[in-house]
């Protein structure tokens, strides 16, 4: 998380009266009442029109006063976040085009920058030996049919059990846990290929032999690293909301990640890339995507890898991965099949490719299992969940508390 100036410092962020009122959940007149009581300080805005308020001071007052976050007309809680912006079919991380980040920097570099605001070229995350050993033992005890998300969930639990300081929610402690947890998750997964990792390998290089038995391919490895960057966060997706709820209850970072993984496993979220993989593999095997798409439409199934509720056009993450896959010679067949899927579907609906289809091109090309995309998603998004946890730890605890609308029988009812 980018360090915020301390309240009261001259360079601290300033809020307008309206913004302060929204954050406090009160009318603008009440904001000035807080000033008159000495509960807030104000500075005259430039030009003498209105006042400005220290953002940290306003947030501290909101926490002390127990004010709920302001709600729109629909009654949904509004999350103010400085992590991801999706606007005009573009995807930004802290105001920077995420597709450019994916082309220029490794996953670890982007994760570190997302958390701290500091770019550290060449940074590598390392798993503590005792933590990694515990995670591997726990994962090794699972049945052979267990999926990758099953393994990641128990690896998180094992890692938490080895960290007696996990309840320290200071930013430094949370980041220390995150830097060791992510490589632990990767290292706990069984190796599919025979390649061995070496000290100082990037996270993408460590993950590669756990996804495919094929030797490391440099252009394809670059696509994998870019995919890790592009999946690191995507606003308040279902798993991220679950992670923020856990953080709001001051759950430790391992529990936050566990909450995210629990939701990610749903077929409408992280597992969607597996459906796209199977469809694309069938299209490659049959030599045409047309009958495959027709089968989906005939049986009333949604064509996977197509369309995204947040983008009118092509998912910018998919566009970036497709461009990088052009440099992978063996991807030509899967790329052509993916384009045919999009073109065939477009005859019926104006939908475009999303990142699940791009991940499917990578997994089909490199001989990965259908769930490989889900594994990439889960490992990558762990850094985003940590970023959101860092934000949420700074908010009023337990603020995410919707009200239930009881629809059962009215009391008194006879005791059964």
Give a brief outline of the structure.
This protein is mainly alpha-helical. Helix content is 51%, strand content 5%. The chain has a three-stranded antiparallel beta sheet. Strands 4-5-6 form a three-stranded antiparallel beta sheet.
- What's the overall geometry? globular
Rg value:
24 Å
- Per DSSP E runs of 2 or more residues, the count of β-strands stands at 6
Give the helix level as a range of percent: 40-55%
Q: What's the helix-strand series?
A: EHHEEHEEEHHHHHHHHHHHHHHH
Largest sheet: 3 strands, antiparallel
- Number of contiguous helices: 18
Structural class: mainly alpha
Strand order of the largest sheet: 1-3-2
Question: Which band does the percent of strand residues land in?
Answer: under 5%
Estimate the mean pLDDT confidence.
90
User: pLDDT below 50 for ≥5 consecutive residues: which ranges?
Assistant: 1-10, 68-75
Textual characterization of the structure:
The protein is mainly alpha-helical. It contains 18 helices and six strands. It has a three-stranded antiparallel β-sheet. A three-stranded antiparallel β-sheet has the order 4-5-6. Helix 5 packs parallel to helix 10 (218-230), helix 13 packs across helix 14 and helix 13 packs across helix 17 (355-365).
Topology:
Blueprint: E1 14-16, H1 17-24, H2 28-36, E2 42-44, E3 51-54, H3 55-65, E4 84-87, E5 90-93, E6 96-97, H4 98-104, H5 107-116, H6 129-140, H7 148-161, H8 171-188, H9 203-207, H10 218-230, H11 238-248, H12 253-264, H13 272-286, H14 290-298, H15 316-325, H16 332-346, H17 355-365, H18 372-393
Antiparallel strand pairs: 1-3, 2-3, 4-5, 5-6
């Amino acid at each position: 998380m980018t360090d915020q100036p301390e309240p009261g410092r001259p360079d601290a962020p300033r809020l307008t009266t309206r913004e302060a009122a929204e954050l406090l959940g009160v009318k603008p007149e009440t904001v000035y009442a807080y000033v008159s009581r000495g509960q807030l300080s104000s500075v005259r805005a430039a030009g003498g029109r209105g006042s400005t308020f220290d953002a940290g001071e306003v947030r501290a007052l909101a926490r002390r006063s127990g004010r709920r976050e302001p709600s729109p007309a629909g009654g949904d809680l509004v999350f103010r976040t400085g992590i991801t912006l999706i606007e005009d079919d573009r995807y930004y991380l802290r105001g920077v085009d995420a597709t450019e980040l994916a082309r220029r920097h490794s996953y670890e570099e982007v994760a570190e920058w997302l958390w701290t605001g500091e770019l550290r070229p060449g940074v590598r995350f390392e798993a503590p030996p005792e933590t990694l050993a515990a995670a591997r033992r726990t994962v090794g005890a699972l049945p052979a049919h267990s999926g990758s998300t099953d393994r990641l969930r128990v690896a998180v639990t094992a890692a938490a059990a080895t960290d007696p300081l996990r309840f320290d929610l200071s930013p430094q402690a949370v980041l220390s846990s995150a830097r060791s947890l992510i490589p632990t998750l990767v290292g706990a997964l069984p190796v599919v290929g025979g390649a061995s990792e070496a000290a100082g390998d990037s996270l993408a290089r460590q993950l590669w032999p756990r996804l495919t038995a094929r030797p490391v391919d440099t252009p394809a490895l670059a696509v994998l690293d870019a995919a890790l960057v592009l999946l690191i966060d995507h606003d308040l997706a279902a798993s991220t909301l679950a992670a923020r709820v856990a953080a709001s209850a001051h759950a430790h970072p391992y529990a936050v990640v566990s909450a995210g993984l629990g939701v990610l496993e749903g077929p409408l979220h992280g597992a969607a890339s597996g459906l796209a993989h199977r469809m694309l593999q069938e299209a490659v095997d049959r030599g045409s995507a047309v009958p495959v798409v027709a089968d989906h439409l005939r049986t009333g199934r949604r064509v996977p890898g197509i369309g995204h509720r947040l983008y009118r056009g092509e998912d910018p993450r998919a566009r970036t991965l497709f461009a990088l896959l052009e440099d992978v010679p063996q991807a030509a067949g899967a790329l052509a099949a993916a384009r045919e899927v999009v073109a065939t579907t477009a005859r019926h609906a104006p939908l475009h490719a999303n990142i699940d289809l791009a991940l499917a091109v990578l997994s089909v090309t490199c001989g990965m299992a259908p769930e490989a995309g889900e594994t990439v998603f889960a490992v990558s998004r762990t850094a985003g969940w940590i970023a959101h946890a860092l934000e949420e730890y700074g908010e009023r605890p337990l603020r995410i508390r919707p009200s239930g609308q009881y629809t059962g029988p009215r009391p008194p009812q006879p005791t059964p």
